[in-house]
């Protein structure tokens, strides 16, 4: 997955990883005094008070390893999953509207892939209000003796749920102990922080008028131009960042930048000449060129390079060669468009909608053709949808989208539209943008009632689908199948991860031909952290993987 996809799914803000809070705050008595939170894991032989259900990794109390006291909590990679999490619900009334800091002392062994960190979550009912997590570059990896990890989050005043999560998202073993929780009243906004530095050419000379793009792990970005001395400065909130730059002298990229609150982080970017020219034209919905738009090119190894469109909407940038490229465009009103680049030598034509009032013809069409709905919820009859019958009478495939991910009413309407299409037009398959293989567990439940629909839904990886509304749709499909001879199907039509599919292929080959060429390649794709392992390969090694899979 390329880095730019984060722009479509930005939900988790990187937390400030630091040994202590950096915002100026007034210390207050701990609201946790007198509460039995078992922060040192000294109680009994289980992590009493902590939630370990669905942790995936093996979780235990280790009496032989401790930072302080006699015990610690250990999480051991199970060889299958890519994340193990243990949760502690904090008293929300004690931290609402305050700055919460969690500190954990962590020891790691054999964390060769992934990393170990902390997460904080604040919510109200089913709504997630704020999230923070240890940035990837600050997570612990390899073999570490006890080291402190710290995470800060400003808790929204309306939160009724606040959770600390110990997050082992790697191989090997991680031990947690000596948890500390601090709460402070913030006197004012945090001090400003920034990324400042210079852009230099391959001879070390300053490059004036270079375009600099700063990209957060949540999909936000900022841009700046270097001055005559090649200098730039970009104010950013605390978190983890990647930086890309471009000029006539070439392109450059710096990854793994951490910015603490109040810090001015120095960065030096060296430009070099790339080997692959990417080019194209950006137009609006009327076919007119879009000038001055930001164009960001990303490679398969998640390096990003910014440029801008010219007066005629064209853009061009020569960047390092990679097996895959993606382009993202953003206009001056915040509108965005994305494009996968299938042929890097061919021009990439993209369309960016200009903001503004809809054309009068569009308003007139809506006025003449709109169909008022009584409700977005299923189970309330279909009479108000009868006016749609001519539209769908000959349809074989109907697309059901959403303007925003996570909005309750959009998926309630999808459920109602499925009910309508099944009952009035004979549709029988619901397809979703998720892994085809993993969706078979949901389909098995819909067909036979076997399995746990909640676990099956969580097993397709997407937070956007793992909701009460989608679960209601699945349960409706199951109930329909129980009373109708013509059965409904739930299928996935995407290939986001190879994990389960690769393991299924290996199991098949082991039955029919354990020495088949390509078996070992497929087996590696079925192992945890296969994405990171693949990204570590050279371009030639990646090509060899592709050829082995094609041969199989």
Can you walk me through this structure?
The two termini are 23 Å apart. The protein is globular. Strands 1, 2, 3, 4, 5, 6, 7, 8, 9 and 10 form a ten-stranded mixed sheet that branches. Strands 13-12-15-16 form a four-stranded antiparallel sheet, with no helix packed on it. A four-stranded antiparallel sheet has the order 20-19-22-23, with no helix packed on it. The N terminus is likely disordered. A hairpin with a 4-residue loop joins β19 and β20. α8 runs antiparallel to α9. The protein has eleven helices and 26 strands. It is an alpha+beta fold and 552 residues long. The chain folds into five domains: 164 residues, Galactose-binding domain-like (Jelly Rolls, Sandwich); 78 residues, Carboxypeptidase-like, regulatory domain (Immunoglobulin-like), CATH 2.60.40.1120; 76 residues, Sandwich (Immunoglobulin-like), CATH 2.60.40; 135 residues, EreA/ChaN-like, small alpha-beta sandwich; 53 residues, no CATH class.
The computed structural class is alpha+beta
CATH superfamily of the largest domain: Galactose-binding domain-like
Biggest β-sheet description = 10 strands, mixed
Question: In angstroms, what is the radius of gyration?
Answer: 26 Å
- Uncertain segments are 1-27
Mean pLDDT: 89
Summed up, the domain count is 5
- How many strand elements? 26
Shape: globular
CATH class of the largest domain, please? Mainly Beta
Helix percent band? 10-25%
End-to-end Cα distance, whole Å, is 23 Å
CATH architecture of the largest domain: Sandwich
How much of the sequence lies in strands comes to 35-45%
CATH topology of the largest domain: Jelly Rolls
Number of helices: 11
């Amino acid at each position: 997955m390329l880095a730019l996809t984060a722009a479509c799914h930005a939900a988790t803000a990187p937390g400030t990883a630091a040994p202590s809070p950096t915002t100026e705050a007034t210390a207050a008595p701990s609201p946790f005094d007198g509460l039995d939170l078992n922060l040192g894991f000294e109680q009994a032989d289980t992590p009493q008070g902590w939630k370990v259900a669905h942790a995936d990794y093996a979780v235990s109390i280790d009496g032989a390893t401790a930072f302080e006291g006699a015990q610690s909590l250990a999480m051991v990679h199970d060889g299958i999953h890519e994340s193990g999490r243990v949760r502690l619900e904090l008293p929300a009334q004690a931290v609402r509207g305050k700055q919460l800091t969690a500190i954990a002392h962590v020891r790691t062994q054999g964390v060769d892939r992934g990393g170990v960190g902390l997460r904080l979550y604040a919510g109200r009912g089913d709504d997630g209000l704020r999230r923070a997590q240890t940035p990837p570059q600050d997570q612990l990896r390899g073999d570490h003796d006890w080291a402190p990890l710290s995470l800060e989050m400003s808790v929204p005043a309306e939160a009724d749920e606040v959770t600390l999560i110990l997050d082992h998202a790697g191989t090997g073993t991680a031990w947690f102990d000596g948890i500390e929780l601090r709460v402070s009243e913030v006197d004012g906004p945090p001090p400003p922080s920034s990324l400042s530095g210079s852009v230099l050419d391959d001879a070390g000379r300053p490059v004036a008028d270079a375009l600099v793009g700063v990209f957060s792990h949540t999909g936000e970005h900022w841009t700046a131009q270097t001055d005559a001395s090649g200098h730039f400065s970009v104010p950013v909130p605390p978190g983890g960042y990647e930086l890309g730059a471009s000029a006539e002298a070439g392109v450059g990229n710096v990854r793994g930048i951490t910015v603490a609150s109040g810090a001015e982080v120095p960065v030096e970017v060296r430009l070099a000449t790339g080997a692959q020219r990417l080019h194209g034209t950006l137009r609006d919905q009327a076919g007119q060129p879009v000038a001055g738009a930001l164009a960001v090119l990303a490679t398969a190894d998640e390096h990003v390079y910014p440029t801008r469109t010219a007066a005629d909407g064209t853009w061009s940038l020569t960047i390092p060669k990679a097996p895959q490229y993606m382009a993202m465009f953003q206009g001056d009103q915040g509108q965005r468009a994305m494009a996968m680049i299938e042929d890097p030598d061919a021009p990439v034509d993209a369309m960016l909608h200009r903001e503004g009032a809809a054309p009068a013809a569009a308003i007139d069409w809506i006025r003449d053709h709109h169909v008022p709905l009584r409700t977005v919820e299923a189970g309330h009859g279909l009479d108000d949808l009868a006016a749609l019958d001519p539209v769908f009478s000959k349809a074989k495939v109907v697309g059901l989208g959403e303007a925003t991910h996570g909005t309750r009413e959009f998926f309630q309407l999808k459920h109602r539209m499925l009910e309508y299409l099944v009952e009035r037009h004979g549709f029988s398959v619901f397809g979703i943008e998720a892994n085809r293989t993993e969706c078979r567990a949901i389909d098995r439940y819909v067909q036979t009632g076997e399995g746990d629909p909640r676990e099956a839904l969580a097993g397709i990886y997407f937070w956007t689908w793992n909701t009460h509304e989608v679960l209601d749709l699945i349960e409706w499909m199951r109930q329909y199948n129980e009373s109708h001879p013509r059965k409904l199907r739930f299928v996935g039509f995407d290939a986001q991860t190879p994990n389960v599919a690769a393991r299924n292929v290996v199991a098949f080959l082991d039955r029919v031909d354990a020495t088949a060429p390509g078996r070992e390649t497929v087996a590696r794709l079925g192992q945890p952290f296969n994405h990171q392992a693949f990204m570590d390969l050279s371009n030639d090694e990646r090509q060899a993987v592709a050829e082995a899979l094609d041969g199989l």
